[in-house]
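4.2 Preliminary Data

To establish feasibility before requesting continued support, the project team ran the inverse folding procedure on a target of 402 residues. The structure was first converted into the token representation described in Section 3, and no sequence information of any kind was made available to the design step. The complete token record follows.
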């Protein structure tokens, strides 16, 4: 059995997605997500120029060997572009293997550890009142876990909050917009937000919050401590984690559980964080961290240290990645929670998928492979459109973390 052809498909049904389709000489094909928000064309170029030509003629069932070939064999290891490209091929090969075995990928990984996956949705508002309303809406929709973000008085725009209530998409068409940031305002405001939410809904639904890498370690420690009375499920991306040791300081000051890793691309990015039990949830995703083959290594390592998974699931991870995440989560013994930011209706049409939301959980049927498709004719009607995440600046003009 041989890989005959690999196609990269770039489409923008409301936002940009890159997908690989690996075709075999036996008619079976597999899909993989290769979307790297704001750097989409770097991954498709890397695949087209440097990965795909090397894979034609290889046996698609040699998933591990192809992974090692693309990682070790390239000499240049890691990095988001490389690891996203490897992830896309890896996902597609697991999809093929599942179709050949006539089994879902979760069966190939070792079978179901659970029947359904707890998910969290995004409640956001331009102010506290709108955020509380959004939490009520999520509870009515069946969510058992809700991330809460709110605008900050004095800041014209804040990450995680849409222009109008409801849908939020972090990337914007055109060149990167600039947004102001002021940590002092945010720190004053955020504990009050959670007090209002807990007063309104009580302690039953899980609440989560994303600090989006904006804080220094000591500021993050202060926030974690201030949020303790509101019993958060997690505080996410409290500080940038290139310096993994930074989390030690936060950990020493607060019992608020910590999650990090949506921008990580390999096990080396979280080795100390997990090994020293400095975090509680690892957020690395299948699309950005080398696919199922590599993320399985991260999850197994995390399990040894009582760290659970809490994968990134924003709109820039395509339904192909979400399908892989659902298969993975059904298997992973240390699954924790899955982020769910629903795609728009057109994206769901371009990528028909089997997974679905039911009463606060994601479920899927016993379908072969990943359980996701691409409507290529529809995808072709929506070509790439330049779009970027915003950038953040402090009030004096300094660049800050977005
Ligand atoms: C966010 C994302 O979902 C999250 O937790 O941090 O919206 C993130 O900003 C984007 O996915 C970046 O690509
Ligand atoms: Mg985040």
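Position-by-position output of the design step:
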């Amino acid at each position: 059995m041989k890989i005959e052809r690999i196609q990269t498909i770039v489409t923008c049904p409301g936002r940009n997605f890159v997908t690989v389709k690996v075709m075999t000489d036996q008619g079976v094909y597999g899909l993989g997500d290769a979307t790297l928000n704001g750097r989409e064309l770097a991954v498709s170029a890397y695949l087209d120029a440097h990965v795909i030509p090397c894979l034609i003629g290889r046996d698609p069932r040699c998933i591990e060997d192809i992974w090692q070939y693309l990682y070790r064999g390239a000499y240049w290891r890691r990095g988001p572009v490389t690891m996203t490209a490897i992830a896309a091929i890896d996902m597609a090969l697991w999809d093929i293997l599942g179709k050949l075995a006539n089994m879902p990928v979760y069966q190939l990984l070792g079978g179901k550890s659970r029947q359904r996956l707890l998910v969290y949705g995004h409640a956001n508002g331009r102010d506290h009142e709108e955020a509380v309303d959004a939490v009520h809406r999520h509870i009515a929709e069946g969510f058992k876990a809700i991330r809460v973000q709110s605008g900050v008085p004095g800041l014209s725009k804040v990450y995680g909050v849409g222009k109008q209530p409801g849908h939020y998409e972090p990337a914007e068409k055109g060149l990167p917009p600039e947004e102001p940031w002021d940590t002092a305002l945010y720190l004053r405001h955020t504990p009050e937000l959670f007090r209002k939410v807990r007063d309104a809904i009580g302690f039953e639904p899980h609440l989560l919050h994303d600090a989006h890498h904006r804080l220094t370690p000591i500021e993050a420690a202060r926030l974690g401590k201030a949020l303790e009375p509101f019993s958060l499920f997690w505080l996410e991306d409290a500080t940038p984690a290139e310096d993994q040791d930074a989390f030690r300081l936060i950990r020493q000051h607060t019992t608020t559980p910590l999650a990090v890793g949506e921008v990580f691309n390999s096990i080396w990015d979280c080795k100390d964080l997990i090994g020293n039990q400095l975090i509680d949830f690892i957020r690395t995703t299948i699309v950005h961290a080398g696919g199922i083959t590599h993320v399985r290594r991260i999850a197994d390592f995390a399990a040894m240290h009582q760290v659970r998974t809490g994968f990134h699931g924003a709109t820039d991870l395509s339904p192909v990645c979400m399908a892989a995440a659902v298969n993975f989560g059904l298997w992973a013994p240390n699954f924790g929670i899955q982020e769910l930011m629903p795609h728009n209706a057109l994206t769901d049409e371009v990528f028909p998928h089997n997974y679905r939301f039911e009463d606060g959980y994601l479920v899927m049927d016993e379908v072969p492979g990943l359980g996701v498709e691409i409507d290529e004719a529809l995808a072709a009607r929506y070509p790439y459109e330049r779009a970027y995440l915003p950038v953040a600046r402090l009030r004096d003009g300094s660049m800050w973390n977005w």
